[in-house]
Amino acid sequence: MSETEKKPRDSQTRCRFCRDRLGSVDYKDVTFMNRLVSAQGKIFSRRRSGTCTGHQRSLQRAVKRARFLALIPYTG
C-alpha cells in the first residue's frame, strides 16, 4: 500500500468492548483491567487502549471501584 492510499474504513480498530458486545466493564475482572492500566497504575488513554468514549468512562469507573476495594493497587 502506498503512502497516498488510505486504509479501508473496515480495517480501523474498533473498541474491544463494542467488538465483543459488552455493555460495561466489570470491576471484578482484575486480569482484564490490568491490561488497560500501566505499571505505574495509570489508566491508558483512549488512543492507546483503543476504547470508545463511553466504554472509557465505564473503564475509569471500574478501575476506581477496584482500587477502592483493593483489587488493583493505586500505584505500581
Task: Provide a short characterization of the protein structure.
By secondary structure, this protein is mainly α.
List the helices and strands and how they pair.
Layout: H1 16-19, H2 30-34, H3 46-49, H4 53-68
Written account of the structure:
This protein has helices at residues 16-19, 30-34, 46-49, 53-68. The longest helix has 16 residues, at 53-68. The chain is mainly alpha-helical and 76 residues long. The chain is built from four helices and no strands. It has a domain at 17-68: Irregular (30s Ribosomal Protein S18). The model has no long low-confidence stretch (mean pLDDT 84).
The end-to-end span amounts to 41 Å
- Biggest β-sheet description: none
* CATH 2nd-level architecture of the domain at 17-68: Irregular
Global structural class: mainly alpha
Shape: elongated
Report the uncertain regions.
none
User: How many β-strand stretches?
Assistant: 0
**Highest-level CATH class of the domain at 17-68:** Few Secondary Structures
CATH topology term of the domain at 17-68:
30s Ribosomal Protein S18
Radius of gyration: 15 Å
Oligomeric state of the chains in view: single chain
Helix fraction, binned, reads: 25-40%
Provide a count of the helices.
4
Beta percentage is under 5%
Write out the CATH superfamily name of the domain at 17-68.
Answer: Ribosomal protein S18
Average the pLDDT over all residues and give the rounded result: 84
